[in-house]
Amino acid sequence: MGRRLGRELLRLRVASGKTQQQAAGVINATNSKIVKMEQGWVPMRDPDIRTLCDLYGADPQAIGRLLELARLDRERRKAKGWWQHSPQAGALAEYIAMEDVASRLRTWQLSLIPGLFQTSEYARSLAVSDGVWEDPDDIERIVEVRMKRQARLGGERPLEVYAVIWEAALRQQVGGPLVMRNQLAHLLEVAQLPNVRLQVLPYQAGGHPCVGSSFNIVSFAETDAVDVVHTDTIASTVWVENEEEGAAYSSFFDRTARQSLAPKDSVSLIESIGKEKAS
């Protein structure tokens, strides 16, 4: 929300022809603060937003939308979560904070079981193979972070999860045959939860819209809240927080889901692969 609010203010300023110095002047701030606001790095006060919007000539409807974004951003920044006390959450902490207040998650995975569905042994094997963490205690804390996230699958307000997984993620040998057998068995249990829809895209489906990368689409219950798309590359994390690009990711997800097996058939495939690994 903060980044989207910042981008909106930047767009309005550029469209109005105003400089960062002029913007800073009307709210008695430094140029540095305007940069931080436009990058979404700091919470924003309603009076500052109104003053800047007046300078930029924004209409009342736009101002109301930005004030609502600012309110949501402040609420999320104030939220106190267990992840804030876990250094091992690292760059994932911002994503976990969003996941904690989300109402729905759509996740597409190319080569890994979704984090919310992983067993501790599977998560531990991934942490070891990553090579970044060498201290066994650090690795165990990483696993603990992953397991705590899974609390969102239950409780009073369970997260609605729609997961589409490529068949490769089921066959990728993470941690050895026993780890994978247990992981697939756990996946079958998760698939029975009323708030989970699980589909598998089989190899035989061929080319598909999501062949490029894995991603998560996080949705919120608030009226007019825009979906947030989160995807990791090898070297960075990419966030998408605008309606047009978010709609494109939703379209990619839906089209790939249509090419995937139905939930019942997906369960059958998982069971079949599990039996192969037991032999």
Assign the CATH superfamily of the largest domain: Endonuclease Chain A
The residue ranges in which pLDDT falls below 50 over 5 or more consecutive positions are: 82-89
Q: Tell me the β content.
A: 5-15%
End-to-end CA span: 49 Å
How many helical stretches? 12
Helical coverage, percent range: 40-55%
What is the number of E strands?
6
- Going across the biggest sheet, name each strand in turn: 3-2-1-4-5-6
Domains (count): 2
Supply the CATH class of the largest domain. Alpha Beta
Radius of gyration over alpha carbons?
22 Å
Mean pLDDT: 85
CATH topology label of the largest domain: Endonuclease, Chain A
General shape: elongated
Query: Structural class of the helices, strands and pairings?
Result: alpha/beta
Major sheet attributes: 6 strands, mixed
What would you say this structure looks like, in words?
This protein is α/β, with parallel strands linked by helices. It has two domains: 2-78, 434 Repressor (Amino-terminal Domain) (Orthogonal Bundle); 82-278, Endonuclease Chain A (Endonuclease, Chain A, 2-Layer Sandwich). It has helices at residues 2-16, 20-26, 31-39, 46-56, 60-78, 93-101, 120-130, 136-149, 167-171, 177-190, 243-259, 263-278; strands spanning 104-109, 160-166, 196-201, 215-219, 228-232, 237-240. It has a six-stranded mixed beta sheet with strand order 3-2-1-4-5-6, sandwiched between helices. Helix 4 packs antiparallel against helix 5 (60-78). The longest helix has 19 residues, at 60-78. The N and C termini lie far apart (49 Å). Residues 82-89 have low confidence and may be disordered.
